Amino acid sequence: MNNPIKDEDWILRFDKVTKRFPGVLALDNVSFDVLRGEVHALVGENGAGKSTLIKIVTGVYQKTSGAVFFQGQSIHYQNPHEALRSGIAAIYQELNLIPALTVAENIFMGHHIRNQRGFIDWKKMKEEAQKLIDFLEVDVDIDAKVGTLGVAKKQVVEIAKALSLNAQILIMDEPTAALAKKEIETLFRIIQFLKSKGVTIIYISHHLDEIFAISDRVTVLRDGKHVATSNTATLTIDDLIKMMVGRKLVEQFPHLDHKVEDEVLRVENLNRKGVLHNINFSLKKGQIVGIAGMVGSGRTELLRAIYGLDPLDGGKIFVKGNKVTIQSPHDAINLGIALLPEERKTQGLVLLLSVTDNIGLPSLTKISNRGFIDDTKLNHITSEMVQMMNIKTPFFHQKTMFLSGGNQQKVVLGKWFARECDIYLFDEPTRGIDVGAKIEIYHLMNKLIERGAAILMVSSELPEILGMSDHILVMKEGKITGTLTRQNANQEEVLKLAIGGGRLNGRSD
Amino acid sequence: MDALTEDKNQGLVERFFIFWDRIGILLVFIVVCVVFGILNPVFFNPLNIINVIRQVSIIGVMAVGMTLVILLGLIDLSVGSIVAFAGIIAAGFQVKWGGNFFLSLIIPLLVAAGIGYFNGYVSTKGGIHPFIVTLGSMSIFRGATLLIAQGKPISGMSPAFRFIGAGMIGPIPFPVILFLGCVIVFGIILKRTVFGRYIYAIGGNQEAALLSGIMVDRVKILTYTILGTLSGLSALILTSRLNSGELVAGQGYELDVIASVVIGGTSMMGGEGGVYGTLIGALLIGVISNGLNLLGVQPYWQMMVKGTIIILAVLMDRMKRRFRTV
Fold first, then answer.
1. pLDDT mean over A41-57
2. Which residues numbered 272-311 in B keep a CB inside 8 Å of some CB on A?
3. Which residues does the UniProt record annotate as the domain ABC transporter (chain A) (predicted)?
4. In this predicted structure, what is the pLDDT of residue B146?
5. In this complex, do A329 and B210 lie within 8 Å of one another by their Cβ atoms?
6. Is A508 inside any structural domain?
7. Same domain for A127 and A165?
């Protein structure tokens, strides 16, 4: 980056962009430029702020402070539609297409071509759609229903849709997540082609090898802060990982060494087609085992399979030495297994119900007599949990929808604490929670361990995995690519196993 | 910033909706009663009041069961047909098939429960939207009613059977006691039993309920079975009062039943509401019909008024939810 960048070279400029959510600083004074006609990669760990940044550009979120300039003008779109109209299109992992409609209609969805009388001009629309598809040099039938297409072709339709609106900037969020190798090559060809036509691409990916294959420059975000923007060619994968991870592993993890006792959970050759491949591990009483890996690596799916939410295609599960069949969460709970799900609002809590009702929910059968709930016991449990978890609520009958994120998560914890299980499956236990509440939750996890439980914890936050786990399983593409002990684990090692392209020496055992 | 002033306004609006949530419908009910009472003093005559409650009790018993189904976020359109089918079976056992009093009570209730079970089982295990399943049942059992009756109503019940719909205990009609009994029993079930809390949990967030170990399908099937049974009870009351198993019995009842529940403040999205609201909802519908009758208003108007109130009630529910999402 020796040659200075002239002002007219940039197309998109972030100037001290800050985004604050209640309790979380998602973006902290982020400033960098995206140059016209480049492929600009955006990398960072989960939660680094990439998605937030993109959502600010496309008008999904509004920034708290700072400015974003597009072609020299300050922009503040209120919704993605406005951004699209101005020439900024985003293609998300979940594609925004209507399966029952044709390719041509999807391309022109929202801006159908009409004739003078206001009716849709199908002929013209099909012609234009065909032109766009031809332009991209791909083989997609414009009359096919989008639902019949594979992910790769759907992506092409999304790209064509963006081009039909003359997109200047095309943002791609993990575009290769669901693509086969061959399809990735086609995608890269399209990206190169668009670049040659002057379209600017912002490319988000966890796959660092892709970043090196396709991008001109790369921006690294970490904990909502801008770390660096450099020419990709001047970097190595190790440089990038170091920048993503940073160097600060604060002593905020109150890990305790406990006496590890008998095995409580063992999983043998667990398989679920296309999702989990030959998963083997064991969990002992007094242990916290962390599962690291990128989003989509099968971590959540593993927990769901153990909990009886998704059917298995093969493999055995042993609880305290006995082979068990778990077909529903009901079965799992009866065996002493609890799952604290990833999304507390949509999965963990009934937001319309009170703190008491939520805490009591899994335990109701235990504290009832002939179907009638023992209210004294229920209130007793609630007050015990509210105290232990330090849940801040004006009264027990407050609906949980009115609590803060951290307090909601503590209610979820409380409900499973009260149920007294042996095996706790935690999925992203501290996502979206401020640091103070996080530490409280770690202490509560320790309390569970002291009580004789074992914990299996999925987390996207590496420091948390490293800080709290006795053992770490690293997953990638549905396989366990490595098992690390607390002593020999570090962030680079875990990231390599989790991302581990062919050129990284992913060590697996 | 303007966020602050916005907050203040929101607070006011929010407070209004919290207030509305608690006693809004009760307030409307009282106002409507007072207005009718002023326009025609006969309205407050004890006989008239008892008459109104007796009239709504057939719909009301079903509405109690429908409250549970709607609390789950589900629906049942077949209740009117269940009333006809169970009613014709009751009449059959009274008049044609031996005249055994107990069989004429038990068999219709069991059949009605079975239809409810069928609705619940097919919609949960078959993964079909209950709207469709119960639309099907609605047609099936209307047809079955005509088939059994061979196109003719079955009339002439025994005095003991007549008591169910026409009897009095002291000054109070027996159907009213059945209706209020259902309200109280299911009010307690919803509030105090595990089953009741599961209904709210599933209606509020099915996934969270499932993850908490609740056997969601089982609760849904049981709830449909309860609604079926209560529809059977309504069938007994109706057949007894008409002294006849009628072919068109219960036609259009689903509308009044669902309206009572919704007007009573139970959310069509599930998770919020209860049978006490439904009690008021059913009474409000009854009072409006009765009051307009007393004033000599054409029945056509009554239908329009009822429809308008339903829409307003749901609108209030939507607004309440909109202002609550932070």
1. 85
2. 272
3. 12-248, 258-502
4. 93
5. yes
6. no
7. yes
